[in-house]
Amino acid sequence: MRLSKYFVPTLKEVPNDAVVVSHILMLRTGMVRMLSAGIYSFLPLGYRVVKKISEIIREEMDAIGGQEFHLPALNPKEIWEETGRVEAFGDTMFHLKNREYVLAPTHEEVMTYHARNVVKSYKDMPQIWYQIQTKFRNESRPRSGVIRGRQFLMKDAYSFDTSWENLDSSYELHDKAYRKIFDRCGLKYFVVGASSGAMGGTGSEEFMVKSAAGEDTVAFCESCGYAANVEVAESRVDAIERDAESKSIYEILTPNVHSIDELCEFLKIDETQCAKSRIYVYDEKPILILMRGNDEVNETKLEKVLGGNVRPAHPEELKDLSGADAGSIGPVGFAGRIIADNRLKDANNMFSGANKNDYHIGGIDFKRDLPAGQEGLPTVEFADFRTVKSGEGCPRCEKHLQVFAAIELGHIFKLGTKYSESMDAKFLDENGKENPIIMGSYGIGVERVIACYIEQNHDANGIIWDKTLAPFQVHLIGLNFKKQEIVDACEKIYNDLNKQGIEVLFDDRDVTAGFKFNDADLLGMPLQVVVGEKKLKDNKCEIKVRKTGERFDVELGDSIGKIKGLLN
Q1: Read out DSSP for 395-424?
Q2: Residue 382 vs residues 10, 270, 287, 404, 517: alpha-carbon distances, Å
Q3: What is the pLDDT of residue 237?
């Protein structure tokens, strides 16, 4: 491809709305342009990368027996109502105003719809169906370029099996295929246990890339390899040591004290002596959640404990539910369900709110005062629903966890019968008995693969592509096209590379050498071949390896062979 004819609208300056490296470089290299918030057009250079990743995905999915579909993005709303996911997705799902249709955020329902109409016998399974299709989600805050968008390209696959054991086999096939895909794409990734969220099912894993641009948070142990999304991560922490003597409960006037830090400053105590109280609403009933000090509630874990969706009580509800506003709420005398974090099981001499504004209580003993002494109130429950922190003990070994931001590349789920039961997708087994189909779901964010690769492979000058994902393998640069001998040499190299099937971007523009070199480093093709007057006098050209900066002076007649050798 001749750069003079190719649409590559590069930018010299960093766009004001871009703060993430991948977003900046995808804009500067002319790979994408934003149409609207969270909606991007892929331009010719960027779309070449999309096609390469898509082809890698197809090859590995086909290798495990996958069959490619192309399903409608526009779905009848009634299909989604069968599974209750219209409500589950809420505002995240796009709805058409003039028709009872939705834009698909994923395709479990549509795949199950087709399965229930054709998969009728155990002889029809196993099946693996996949597609690479556009998805739509009404993200409230789209950001970080293509990492979090409202329209995005996703590979989604679905397995259909007769048993949970066979689902395990399908799940393992996809796990291995995903590792091959990401390995071939040149990504440094790791796998973590994760929450299934709105997808449902019995288990799931995420393929993650460590990045400051990530919106997920991961707990990771370098020593043993333990890794989990903080939504489900556990840690090894010490329980609160019980004081030998318990004080009596006493009330303290604490004017204008609303946070744990303010309480500690006011009373000159450590945060570990405090029990933080937060009220949630579950099944229209209030629940008091107790945490130690500044520990944070992990709402995903809390939902798992309770078995359904919960929400924080609204500020205007707090007074009616507890008798006090936020910052003065506590467990003693609270007329409702109380769940405390496991670290508080044996705690005594603790401080918490008094359930009246500007007052706190000291001397709280969790064994004595909760619930003993509170006649008629439910027994306090204990569970793990805290968010793990860096430096806490790994749950599998004696080392410590790191907690950091990461980008989700892919997610695999054991769906089980969640969709087959709600959509009546059943089959007859060997004994003629009717059973729900056992399903799995497996997704990859195609555009996220690009973003993650760039996050991991760039320098101050631009992107550093490897030969697998690079839009072009060679960037041919001709200097001073007023010299016919330079034009002739470039044309020969260009034609010879094309004959060899080597993808080449030929900078034949009438611009300065510095301009061409800067663009070449910005675009980041694996090899740069420079034809200039000085070296041409000796019948040579220069080859530069973008990743290492190595340079080679090569005889023109040997240039194609050298290029092929460097690319292999």
Answers
A1: SSSSSB-EEEEEEEEEEEEEEETHHHHHTT
A2: 57, 23, 13, 27, 63
A3: 84
CATH 3.30.930.10 fits 57-233+403-454, yes or no: yes
341: left (phi over 0), alpha (psi -120 to 50) or beta: beta
Rg for the chain, CA atoms, rounded:
30
Looking at the chain, the domain(s) classified CATH 3.90.960.10 span: 250-383
d(CA 425, CA 443): 21
The pLDDT value recorded for residue 198 is 46
- Cβ partners under 8 Å of residue 440, min gap 6: 158, 159, 161, 167, 170, 171, 174, 412, 413, 414, 415
Which DSSP category does 112 fall into? H
Query: Rounded to the nearest 10 degrees, what angle do helices 559-567 and 484-499 cross at?
Result: 50
The CA distances from residue 288 to 64, 335, 339, in Å, are 49, 9, 6
Distance CA 107, CA 422 (A): 15
Q: Which residues in the chain come in under a pLDDT of 50?
A: 196, 198-200, 372-373
The residue length of the chain stands at 568
For domain 472-567, give the CATH number.
Answer: 3.40.50.800
**CATH code for the structural domain at 250-383:** 3.90.960.10
- pLDDT, position 371: 61
Which residues face 529 on adjacent strands? 476, 543
Instruction: Look at the block and give the residue holding tokens 């002494």.
Output: 373
In this prediction, residue 335 carries a pLDDT of 82
Global pTM reads 0.84
Where in the sequence of the chain do the CATH 3.40.50.800 domains occur? Answer: 472-567
- Determine whether 206 is exposed, middle or buried from the number of CB atoms within 10 Å of its CB (0-12, 13-18, 19+): buried
DSSP 157-220: EEEEESSHHHHHHHHHHHHHHHHHHHHHTT---EEEE---GGG-SSEEEEEEEE-TT-SEEEEE
- A 10 A CB-CB count for 224 gives 12
Give the largest CA-CA distance in the chain: 99
> H-helix or E-strand containing 370?
none
Identify the pLDDT of residue 200. 46
8-state DSSP, 475: E
DSSP secondary structure of 477-545: EE--TTSHHHHHHHHHHHHHHHHTT--EEEE--SS-HHHHHHHHHHHT-SEEEEE-HHHHTTTEEEEEE
340: helix, coil or strand? strand
Enumerate the CATH 3.30.930.10 domain ranges in the chain, comma separated: 57-233+403-454
